[in-house]
């Protein structure tokens, strides 16, 4: 087998056309890695400068009423992960700025796609685009006549006569083509590692390793099916046509069809429905800014009883802050209910889509690629959840200061000094652990492995039917 | 030694070989003459173990090709009409590659020696095969079989398309191989070349061996007349 693989590679190296195509494609890959890295680094800088600017505004608050500060609010920016330079995933369409303030959970805004037509139409030129769409095409073009050419030229007879078994020949051809894909993949990851050598962490290396594994399996599947078609079909054109058909179905039609089906099976409420339902549930709760609200009155009675006093002026605390926090907590429970429901639906959609990998390994590749490169919707949802948790902590700190900071009920002119505002920590995103990601994408990896095994079994039994003459 | 005993083979109901009995001894060259579709290539493919006969037995050195094709292939050298080698390799590299596939590892000198014995000029050894003539490729094909130390040579239209000089060189080479003890079966249209090279001649028509004779018993012209008679009847 080694001899056949070596001979195939001699062809690749000596064929001027193929060498030219390889050099051109490697150059494009190189540009995509540099560009992806540059964009990510630039985004990191922009993110840091925006974050520093907003934080500076916050810590510069000289004196302010804590609840007014809750309305003043702050901004949280979605951090860029170094891994995103390999696969952009959903990041360019999800937005990256979130306003954090009292009483309301704002939506994330300012997606790159909404600001740049080219991105909304074609996506960014990232290595994943080339690795997912173009490299498999190259492998197909490399493999479609690998066996049929030997058959038509009569060399297959000579090879078998010299002792090579048909299965050995086919496996060697598959490995040769697959190794070419692996070379391109290794090249991309090597350049990426060199460019980011000082920033490589165990997390990044583990995720990159899993990313590598996903592509390794997918390239094997593509190479194996193409070589097998080349051996089974009567002519190379039929093998090429069949594989191009499969490539189109796998990469263009099936992902769209399966995603639409997943959305139909597990529909999300429309934006209007979602907002109306949130508004309706919110209206049933306590209104923090309305002291005459019946729930606010009930809370007041309860607090007065707890403190054993008759009026708000006798309370050692500021009841306005407590009422605001009660309002906040009710709003949080409404958000948990509706947003939590959306998260459940999104997870179900994701799981249904993942099962699409049974019929289409490209789906498994795309899922795991985005997942391991931290640019999938699960990472985005995790970011939103962390922001909401921070918002709750942020607002509660301000409301607690309003309540227990020494002011009296009704004194809206009371202000806290700069030291207090400085003491409130900034939002700090904690990246999702790779073990969590692995459990989410284990199904995709398992399906890619299953596809590889099925392909090997088909080749093993199918090769016996191959006619040498 | 080659033996075919009552061999029949059909494709989709159409009979390609009918009750063929044939024997080629060690050191003998048998020429199979016949028109296109007479069954010459089918016979060779059965000897190679790529086709199984519907009935009858095929032996190479007393080993049944039907059940032991891996074993019999080790004994066979096959030279098709067009020896299609890897065009991006030189003759030397092609020979080295095919030898390694057969589990044979020769030094560069040994490989060059095989090519020289088979008539390929030294300066052509390292030239890419894409620049070779048909005759040069035939020589490399024979060198592959020779380096394999084949006991049986099967040649399918080997002289077709060769210029007279290359064809003559091929004849000399085949006679040399036979003199060294090789068993050779050569399928051809070329009556004169077959008459000149082979010890014995068989004429195949529609899968039936209609005539078997010794070369020494007929002249080339007589053989041609005989062949035409069989073809026209």
TrEMBL record, chain A:
Organism this protein belongs to: Flavivirga aquimarina
Residues passing through the membrane, by range: 17-38, 129-147, 177-197, 209-231, 237-258, 441-462
Name this protein carries in UniProt: DUF3526 domain-containing protein
Keyword tRNA-binding included in the entry's annotation: no
Domain of life, source organism: Bacteria
Protein's UniProt keywords contain Metal-binding: no
Keywords: Membrane, Transmembrane, Transmembrane helix
TrEMBL record, chain B:
Organism: Flavivirga aquimarina
One Pfam family, short name: ABC_tran
The ABC transporter domain, residue ranges: 2-231
Gene3D superfamilies per UniProt: P-loop containing nucleotide triphosphate hydrolases (3.40.50.300)
Alphabetic keyword roster: ATP-binding, Nucleotide-binding, Transport
Lineage: Bacteria, Pseudomonadati, Bacteroidota, Flavobacteriia, Flavobacteriales
SMART domains according to UniProt: AAA
Keyword Repressor applies: no
Protein name: ABC transporter ATP-binding protein
Database matches in InterPro entries: AAA+_ATPase, ABC_transporter-like_ATP-bd, ABC_transporter-like_CS, ABC_Transporter_VariousFunc, P-loop_NTPase
GO molecular function, one term: ATP binding
């Amino acid at each position: 087998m080694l001899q056949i693989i070596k001979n195939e590679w001699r062809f690749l190296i000596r064929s001027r056309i193929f060498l030219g195509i390889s050099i051109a494609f490697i150059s494009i890959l190189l540009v995509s890695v540099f560009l992806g890295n540059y964009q990510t680094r630039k985004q990191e800088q922009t993110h840091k400068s925006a974050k520093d600017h907003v934080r500076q505004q916050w810590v510069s608050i000289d004196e302010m009423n804590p609840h007014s500060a809750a309305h003043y609010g702050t901004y949280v920016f979605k951090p860029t992960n170094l891994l995103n330079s390999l696969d952009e995933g959903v990041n360019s369409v999800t937005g990256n700025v979130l306003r954090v303030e009292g009483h309301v959970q704002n939506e994330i805004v300012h997606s790159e796609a909404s600001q740049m037509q080219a991105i909304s139409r074609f996506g960014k030129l990232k290595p994943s685009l080339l690795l997912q769409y173009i490299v498999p095409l190259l492998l197909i073009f490399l493999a479609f006549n690998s066996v049929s050419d030997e058959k038509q030229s009569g060399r297959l007879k000579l090879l078998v006569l010299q002792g090579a078994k048909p299965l050995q020949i086919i496996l060697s051809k598959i490995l040769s083509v697959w190794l070419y894909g692996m070379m391109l993949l290794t090249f991309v990851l090597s350049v990426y590692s060199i460019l980011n050598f000082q920033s490589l962490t165990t997390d990044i290396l583990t995720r990159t390793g899993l990313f590598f594994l996903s592509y390794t399996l997918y390239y094997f599947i593509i190479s194996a099916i193409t070589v097998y078609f080349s051996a089974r079909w009567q002519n190379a054109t039929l093998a090429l046509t069949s594989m191009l058909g499969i490539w189109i179905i796998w990469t263009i039609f099936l992902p769209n069809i399966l995603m639409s089906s997943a959305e139909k099976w597990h529909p999300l409420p429309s934006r209007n429905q979602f907002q109306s339902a949130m508004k309706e549930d919110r209206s049933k709760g306590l209104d923090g800014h309305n002291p005459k609200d019946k729930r606010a009155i009930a809370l007041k009675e309860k607090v007065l009883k707890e403190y054993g006093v008759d009026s708000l002026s006798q309370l050692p605390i500021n009841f306005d802050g407590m009422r605001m926090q009660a309002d906040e907590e009710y709003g949080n429970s409404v958000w948990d209910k509706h947003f939590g429901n959306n998260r459940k639906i999104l997870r179900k959609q994701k799981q249904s889509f993942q099962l699409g990998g049974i019929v289409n390994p490209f789906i498994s590749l795309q899922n795991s690629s985005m997942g391991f490169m931290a640019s999938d919707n699960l990472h985005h949802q995790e970011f939103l959840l962390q922001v909401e948790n921070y918002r709750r902590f942020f607002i509660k700190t301000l409301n607690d200061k309003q309540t227990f900071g020494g002011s009296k009920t009704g004194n809206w002119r009371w202000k806290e000094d700069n030291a207090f505002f400085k003491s409130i920590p900034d939002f700090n995103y904690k990246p999702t652990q790779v073990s969590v990601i692995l459990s989410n994408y284990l199904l995709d990896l398992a399906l890619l492995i299953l596809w590889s095994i099925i392909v090997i079994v088909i080749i093993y039994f199918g090769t016996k039917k191959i006619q040498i003459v | 030694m080659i033996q075919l005993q009552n061999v029949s083979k059909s494709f989709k109901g159409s009979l390609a070989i009918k009750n063929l009995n044939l024997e080629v001894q060690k050191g003998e060259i048998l020429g199979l003459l016949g028109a296109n579709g007479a069954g010459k290539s089918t016979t060779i493919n059965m000897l190679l173990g790529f086709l199984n006969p519907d009935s009858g037995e095929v032996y190479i050195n007393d080993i049944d090709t039907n059940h032991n094709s891996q074993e019999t292939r080790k004994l066979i050298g096959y030279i098709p009409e067009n020896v299609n080698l890897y065009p991006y390799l030189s003759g030397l590299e092609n020979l080295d590659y095919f030898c390694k596939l057969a589990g044979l590892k020769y030094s560069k000198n040994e490989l060059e020696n095989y090519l020289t014995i088979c008539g390929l000029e030294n300066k052509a050894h390292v030239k890419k095969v894409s620049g070779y003539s048909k005759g040069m490729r035939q020589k490399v094909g024979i060198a592959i079989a020779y380096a394999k130390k084949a006991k049986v040579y099967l040649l399918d239209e080997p002289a077709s398309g060769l210029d007279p000089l290359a064809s003559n060189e091929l004849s000399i080479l085949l006679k040399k191989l036979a003199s060294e003890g090789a068993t050779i079966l050569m399928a051809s249209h070329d009556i004169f070349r077959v008459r000149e090279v082979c010890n014995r001649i068989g004429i195949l028509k529609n899968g039936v061996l209609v005539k078997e004779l010794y070369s020494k018993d007929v002249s080339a012209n007589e053989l041609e007349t005989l062949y035409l008679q069989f073809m026209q009847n």
